[in-house]
Amino acid sequence: MDSQRPESGPEGGPPNPRVPGTFDQAARAELTQALTDAVGGADPREIPARLCRACVEFLDVTGASISLSGGPGMRTLWWSSDEVAGHLAEAQYTLGDGPCQSALTLVAPVLANDLTSGPDAERWPAFAQRAVELGVRAVFSLPLGSEALAIGTLDLYRQTAGALSQRDLAFAFPAGDAITFALLRLQDGDRPEDGDPHHRAQSWLSTAEQEHEEVYYATGMLMVGLQVDAPYALARLRAYAFAEGRTVTEVARDVIERRVVLDE
Questions:
Q1: What whole-number percentage of the chain has pLDDT above 70?
Q2: Strand ranges across the sheet with 110-112
């Protein structure tokens, strides 16, 4: 992400905490130390997850996840701090809706401070209902990438409603930037200082997409069987999954195994 952001804050949030003068020197030192501790001596593959974990430890949030985008409607959970964070990511993937989906589309932070009522609950009613069932009251999604293109999101959740503090926002933005940088280094196949090949880190997106490869296969099967395009085929999977109270990944597996047949 670019280090400069407009003074109008993230969607649903207060003025941008990265505007000069809103984050004092002591807080900056605390932030720098936290990020340094998170990445110090780590295998490059582990750095994004460590930074994500630092968010949970350092901020007033309950859990976090990193999701990557493989194109319109296609997202992959790359790391989650706990089962609830994973279920939240899967719910948004299944529904094709939610704060992280909006953050990807807008390439801007989306802060859902209260999913129990009000504008946030009305904006994503199905997701909000699922989140509350999981014990989640607030979700904060930050796009990873540049101001022009999001390659994924950093998603933070909390069991209590309420906005992130200025301090927490001021930490979350540079943490998201650091995660973006780490992911791009892995994508480029960066090598460690000792010169040994770093094969384990190459093509992180391809590795992550393996978790949802069933969805790609099932979407392709529906495209052929129904003679429709990919967005419509994926929408059919999602609609069926939502109606059955299941995840889109589970339904995709059944489609591949021909336990479920989706006709027009």
A1: 73
A2: 74-80, 63-71, 150-158, 138-145, 110-112
